[in-house]
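#structure-requests
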Amino acid sequence: MVFLKATIRPAAAADLMALHRVIERAYRGDSARLGWTHEADLLADMRTDLATLLGILADPAQVLLALFEDTTPLGCVNVADKGGGIAYLGLLCVEPTRQGEHLGRTLMGAAEHHARTAFLCRRIEMSVIEQRRDLIAFYERRGWRPTGERRPFPVTLDPPYFMTVLAKPLVRLLRRGA
């Protein structure tokens, strides 16, 4: 698909209502099933809330990068500086009806770039619900590797869920002639 005007930029408070709707459509409910990266078959609660998104904006060690087509939000990704040269990628989502257009890859690239250049990180991590083997395989095809670490899911469920931790080195790009 050709974009009329596509931009990725840090989200502002005025963007959060619309971005929150995209996040919820991408992760939960019947609308999420229009895409393939959802958690709708595993979880029914809200994925996040506005207070959490506002907290991301207020934290200088985090950024919420948003992808817009003209003024319409199509997705976002959260990048957090965890210290020690490590960044964390989370909340990666794309409007379900637009998945398959490489928008997620574009957001991942922007997240990696931000982690490398703004936070000066050498490595980036993420966690994926271990039942989402197809999603883990997608990330592996893009250079992410399982670390062997398994973290508890942030919400207590019965039976419990666990997160597979994936990581990717952030290679500094050398300028031509440098």
